[in-house]
Amino acid sequence: MSLETIAFGGLAVVLVASALAVVLTKNLFHSVLWLALTLTGTAGIFLTLDAEFLAAVQLLLYAGGVVTIAVFAIVVTERLVGDRITQTSRQIFSGLIIAGAVLVGLLTFIGRAPLSRPRPPLGGDLTRAIGDAVLTRFVLSFELLGVLFFAALLGALYFARPDD
Amino acid sequence: MPASVSLQGYLVLAAVLFAVGLFGVVTRRNTIGILLGIELMLNAVNINLVAFARFNGDAAGMVFTVFTICITVAEVALGLALVILIFRVRRTAIADHLDLLRG
Fold it and tell me: Is there a single domain that holds both residue A91 and residue A139?
């Protein structure tokens, strides 16, 4: 077993366990903290796939941004109600059926797909390849992303305006 | 070349994470909890994209991962802004209580 396989196995265990904790914990705030662990573990998975840039983006935007926003939203929406930060789940049985059916379907599909491709050797700097692709092949999508962010910023500002 | 993790390994991990996130979306009652489940599902998709990009030797999948991460962050910011707005109007963050459109 190579070091990479061990790293992948450990990360997979951490990821699945923390993801289960996200959806099963009673305390909503703890749920967000487990989500932070899941997102950080995903950055580790990206590292095993030689995508250092994506791991950094994942840590900055996801583990940094999303978790901060979620904690802020919890503080705003739960404080006024009181100390009722716990949450309950409903319809666990049907949820298990739906999620299990989707999982079985996905695994069947993965098992049948002809995916015995070995991992090719790393061809050059992946970060440089990403930068080249963003500013040449996908430059229009990149510009559209800027427009989307602007619209999202305006929308969030509009939602958050004070009552008049 | 040492026996490294195959593409199937990454796909199975992403499928499990996706199913767990779907379970959270279906069972959570709090709106923020539902959003966290959606985050898990999108995260699983990102793992798939990066794994396919690495095993195909094409950077396009990683570019799309950058795009999905950015779009997800915008979506979460807007979604949580909506949650806060709904909370200010209806004084609740439980999805079952938001039945204004029920006939």
Answer: no
Joined together, the tokens standing for residue B54 give 């690495």
User: A86 pairs with which residues across the strands?
Assistant: A27
CB contact under 8 A, A77 and B83: yes
Specify if B2 maps to a domain.
no
B13 contact partners, CB below 8 Å, separation of at least 6? A12, A15, A16, A45, B47
Domain span at B40: 7-95
Rounded mean pLDDT, A61-77: 83
> pTM for this one?
0.88
Instruction: Sort out which chain A residues have CB atoms less than 8 A from B73's CB and list them.
Output: 61-62, 65-66
CA nearest B70: which of A19, A146, A53, A127?
A146
CB-nearest partner of B54 from A2, A51, A61: A51
Provide the mean pLDDT of chain A. 85
What is the band of B92 on the pLDDT scale with cuts at 50, 70, 90?
A: confident
Q: d(Cα B28, Cα B44) in Å, to the nearest integer? A: 19
Question: Does residue B46 contact residue B80 with C-beta atoms inside 8 Å?
Answer: no
Helix axes B31-56, B7-27, angle to 10 degrees: 170
Q: Which pair of structure tokens corresponds to residue A114?
A: 């002809």
Domain hosting A105: range is 1-113
Strand partners, B30: B94
